[in-house]
Design brief:
The chain is of the alpha/beta class. It is 30% helix and 20% strand. A 6-stranded mixed sheet has the order 3-2-4-1-5-6, with helices on both faces.
């Protein structure tokens, strides 16, 4: 069994002159990342691995949520997640190490809502992922390479205001 949490980054400041990738979390974003990380730790447990976009707001979310969930390992930063479409994101999931049964993936919309909908079983209502929202999926699989569109069970969707 493989478990995947698809966590959208927290609320970030508006676009900066220095560029979109450098946007940092707002106070609300910091607070929500911690709260959702705590919820993940309580509801799902401590992950084996966290993989995040390399954008500042995603990195901050990964660090804060990971700590709140009880994660003590290294976070892997994957530049391909930033501004990725669903095909790229599915490739990132399928390349996850099989030694990790439970992974938190941290990144951005619209790709993360599309990824959640694509991986969930046919007929599942597409999840809505506002900032700091996450989709919890499970796969009846022993390796990540076998994860395919429609192969996951959408266990739950959570967001801060829900």
């Amino acid at each position: 069994m493989k478990t995947l949490i698809i966590l959208r980054h927290g609320k970030a400041v508006d676009v900066l002159v220095s560029g979109d990738k450098r946007r940092e979390l707002t106070e609300r974003g910091l607070r929500d990342a911690k709260a959702m990380g705590s919820l993940i730790g309580t509801e799902v447990g401590v992950p084996d691995l966290i993989v995040s976009s390399d954008a500042t707001r995603a990195r901050q979310t990964a660090e804060i949520a990971g700590e709140a969930a009880g994660y003590e390992g290294e976070i892997t930063y994957e530049s391909a997640i930033y501004d990725a479409g669903v095909d790229t994101l599915v490739s990132v999931v399928r390349a996850l190490p099989d030694s990790a049964d439970y992974v938190i993936l941290v990144g951005h919309n619209p790709g993360f809502e599309s990824l959640s909908a694509d991986l969930a079983a046919d007929g599942t209502e597409p999840p809505r992922l506002p900032t700091s929202g996450f989709a919890h999926l499970q796969f009846d699989a022993t390796n990540w390479r076998s994860v395919r569109p429609g192969s996951g069970a959408l266990v739950a969707v959570h967001w801060p205001k829900k």
